[in-house]
Amino acid sequence: MALKQYAALNKGEYASTVDTWVDKAKKQWLDPKTGLLVSFLNVDGSQITDMPTKGSYSALNCSYLTLIDRKFAQEQYSLLKSSFWKEGTLSGMKEYHDHSPILGMDIDAGPVIMGLSPSGTAFSTGAATFFNDNEVRSNILRTAEICGNTLSSGNKKHYALANIALVGEAIMLAMRTNAPANL
């Protein structure tokens, strides 16, 4: 992201490095089952074949890719929704594309609650916001309201759950404000 922003401000310097990374990602780092960027690589850059592609990592990738390559981000976001989106009273992203435990704990993403990944759901808000996917964004915010319980004090609001998980509230703020830059 930093190199992409630097290139935009400095006559394209390092833009080719960013383009090379995106090309390599598209050719070497896509999961054959989902088409999404893999969640884990070996130190030499090769895929770790026995590790799952996770909803939290994929959602974070989609949100950050909006700042690097809009077309690739859109492709990845569409694949994310088709593999990980779970619609319902509580809508959001699953942590695993092939199963959805009612309750669990993922070593990287944290809790899995009612089959949903709070981390993946929060991170996906960035791509939903960026691409004006108002249906998904509204469903995510409804789930956040139900689970997070918004508290109001004067002209301030925050999620009650943030008293326990402050980082989650900060992530939601960042993701809710992800919009195309005017660079």
Please characterize this protein's 3D structure:
- The chain is mainly α.
- The protein has one domain.
- It has helices at 2-9, 15-28, 55-65, 70-84, 118-130, 134-148, 166-176, and strands at residues 85-86, 92-93, 103-106, 110-113, 150-153, 156-159.
- The strands form three sheets. A two-stranded antiparallel sheet has the order 1-2. A two-stranded antiparallel sheet has the order 3-4. The protein has a two-stranded antiparallel sheet with strand order 5-6.
- Helix 3 packs antiparallel against helix 4, helix 3 (55-65) packs parallel to helix 5 and helix 5 runs antiparallel to helix 6.
- It is globular.
- The model has no long low-confidence stretch (mean pLDDT 91).
Summarize the helix and strand pattern as letters: HHHHEEEEHHEEH
- Percentage beta strand: 5-15%
Q: Estimate the helix proportion, in percent.
A: 40-55%
What is the distance, rounded to the nearest whole angstrom, between the alpha carbons of the first and last residues? 13 Å
Please, what is the average pLDDT? 91
User: Strand arrangement, largest sheet?
Assistant: 1-2
Task: Kindly name the structural category.
Answer: mainly alpha
The DSSP helix count reads 7
How many E-type strands? Answer: 6
Q: In this structure, how is the largest beta sheet organized?
A: 2 strands, antiparallel
Q: Which term fits the overall shape? A: globular
Radius of gyration: 17 Å
Tell me the number of structural domains. 1
Indicate the low-confidence ranges by residue numbers: none
